[in-house]
Structures are given as structure tokens and as C-alpha cells.
Amino acid sequence: MDFFKIRGGKPLNGSVKIRGAKNSVLELMPAALLTDEPVILHNVPCLSDIETLKELLENFGSKVEWNKETHTLVISTPVITSIKAPYEIVKKMRASIYVLGALMGRCGEAKVSAPGGCVIGQRPVNIHLEALEALGANIELHHGYIIGNAPEKNGRKRLVGGVVNGLVRIQNGVHITTHGGTVNAIESAVLADGETTIRYASVEPEVDDLINMLNSMGAKITREKDGDVNIIKIVGVEKLHGCEYSVMSDRLEAGTYAIAAFMTHGVIDIQDADMSTMTDVIEKFRAVGGKIEKTETGFIADGRGCVLKSVDVNVEQYPGFPTDMQSQFMAMMTISEGVSVLKESLFENRLMYVPELQRMGANIEILGDSTAKFIGVKFLNAADVMASDLRSGAALTIAGLVAEGETVLHRVYHIYRGYESFAENLRALGADIEICQEQEG
Predict the structure, then answer these.
(1) Active-site residue 243, yes or no?
(2) Which of 66, 131, 229, 423 is the most buried (most CB within 10 A)?
(3) Could you give the CA distance from residue 389 to residue 255 in angstroms, rounded to a whole number?
(4) What are the tens digits of pLDDT across the range 261-311?
């Protein structure tokens, strides 16, 4: 099992190319099941999560060709040979649940194990199932599996258009629209008989990436607004065709490298980044004191001479500050002047990284209800620390880049799920970071 050795104190300088968004690819790959023609995806990052989903699609009979050098995936599924998503694959990654909507859309039936993934809080799938039931599906839970069946008409199982009105859960008193539920509802409805209206739909750009790809395949999907309610309307079609599509840039990867530039007082040219998907994050960067300069292909994050200032963060749904950026941003707040308060409103276990930062000398007080107060210190100390999820792994890595001494970060397999060549890229920027392997026995 890999771990990182990180020796802090070096500014990061140079350029880094941002790859396709993990959170988008994991929606687009299952959507390829909706057609019997090839789907070609470009700008696909080399991540362990992609490998897991590739294995799952092949379990259904897909032929998946992955050229990691060109970052291209070709997915062909002329015939679906199995509708079962087995536990041994699904347990590795929560996004496996997206195959539920795709299988129900194309086959009218599915048997999908309840999902696994990062332990960052409750993310119930009951909302996903209610969306399918709104489209006529009969859903049963049996021995840890979600079993879905669509109504049968003229010898074919097919979902029926309807109104999906319940894609909202309440977390810490906040109404939260489910991103995953929206994805499954869309993938279920594109081949349904009739028109579907999805109310309280997610507006995250990764969902728009899915919509854009499906429309390029012949789907009929549009967005609307009813006051404050975001709506997606879908007119079901008989068949989708294949397509060639380039995955959107990963806004979370771009933000992580920007934070590394600010914390180490370096300057990084972040290429192929889309600032239009990072509005709230960019505002926070500037409030901290970091310099952001837009370029033709992305932006430059300049931390030279930057005196980091503390900024409060209230995690919200898009276009607010993303939950997947808060641990990296708060790592920066540990060495910023003043006091900052973090309020995590989406996931109750998203502060599991705090004790690890405290081991490095960070002054953090947990206030309850997923709220923490960060009091800036002059420097962090190296320590043995452990990643509990993908984003905490990135946060602890960049904390190690500014810590005095040698930080040893364990469980970096979490990082491999969402950042391609993270340690290698940091090393190319000037970081003193080494990938090591635990000795067996």
C-alpha cells in the first residue's frame, strides 16, 4: 500500500494541466449503456474510480477500450448481457449507483447492490428509488440489492414519463437537492415513454455535462425555472445513438492546485481550467489574498508575497462553495492570519480530517453541527497522518508541503480515486514528495 513522504518548505512554480472531471466521467460512462452504438469519451483522467467503473460496465457486457496515453475511452454495448451490479464491485465506489438509472432506462430492469464509497456522511439512496417509482418502476430491496422492474407493454419493459418531485433531503435544517438522484432520474427518463418533469433538480455543471452528452446522442432534455425551483424536462425517445464527447474540466482539481500555490507562496499556471464553474471559489481565493489571472486556457494562481487572510466558509450547493473543496481550503486557513469559521451543511462527517491537521499543530475547535473554528498559526509541524477520504487526502498533502519536517501521509489510495498523478505533478512543480510502499509483515 502506497504512502507519501512530504518535506515542506518549497514554493511550487510551473504549470499543470487539469484533466476531465471525475464527477462528470462517472456519470457519462453509465450513460453509454443507454445506446447500442459506441460512445467515445475524450479527456478522461487516469483514476482508480474509472478503473472500477470500467470493470462494472464490462460486467454488463460492454467492451471498454481505455487509452490512458490519449485519455480516451471507447464504450460499446451492443447487447446488455447482465442487469446485475454485484456487491464486490459496487462496494468500492458510491458512483456505481448511476448504473441503476441507465439499466432501468435501457432494459426496464436492474439488480444493483447498495453503494459504498467515501465515509463522509449519510447519502441515502431512497430519493433515487422514489424517482424511479415516479416513472412507474416497481422497486424492491432484497438481500442488500435494489431490484427494479418497469411496466411491460407489447413485450417490452419501459419506464413511463412522469413528475419527479422529491429530489430533496434535509440536512442540518438545510434543503439539499441530490446530485446523484438527479443523474439517475435523467438516465431513467431519456428512453421512457412520454414526458418527464424533474423538479428540484441539481444545477451542478457536471449534471449539465451529462445533459449535453445525452442531447448529442439524440435525447431531448431542457432546463427551466419555476420561481426558485430548478426543473429539467425530458421528452422520451425510442433510441439513442452513439457520440464522441469531451469531458468537462475538473474544477475541484484546479482549485486544489491553486490552494497549493497560495500556501507555498508560488505561482502555478493552471491550464485547461474553466473559471466559469468556480465563481464562488475564485471569490474566496481573492478574499484570502491570492492573485488570480485569467488566461486563454485557464488561470494563473499567484501566491508570491501573499499574506494569507482568514475567510469564513459556508458550504452550499452549487453555485455556492463546494463541499469537495472545503478540506483543502481549510488546510490553507490553518496558516492564515486571524480566525475563520467553517460551516459544512451537506455532510455530517466531512470534518474527519480535522484531528489529522491538529496532529500537525493546527489550532482548530469543533463547534458542533459540522462547524469548526480555525485559528491561524505561523507554521505547521510534520507528523504521521492518515487520509479518511479523497479530498482530505489532498488537503493533508498540501498541508505537508508547508509543514516543518517530514510528513508521512497514509492511505493515499483515496487520492488515486480523484487526482491523476498528484504526487508526480506536485514534484514537477518543485515539491519534495516521495511515493513509498508499506513493508509487508
Answers:
(1) no
(2) 131
(3) 17
(4) 999 999 999 999 999 999 999 999 999 999 999 999 999 999 999 999 999
| Rounded Cα gap, residues 121 and 231, in angstroms | 27
pLDDT tens-digit series, residues 201-229:
999 999 999 999 999 999 999 999 999 89
Total number of residues shown for the chain: 441
Per annotation, catalytic residue among 107, 118, 243, 306 = 118
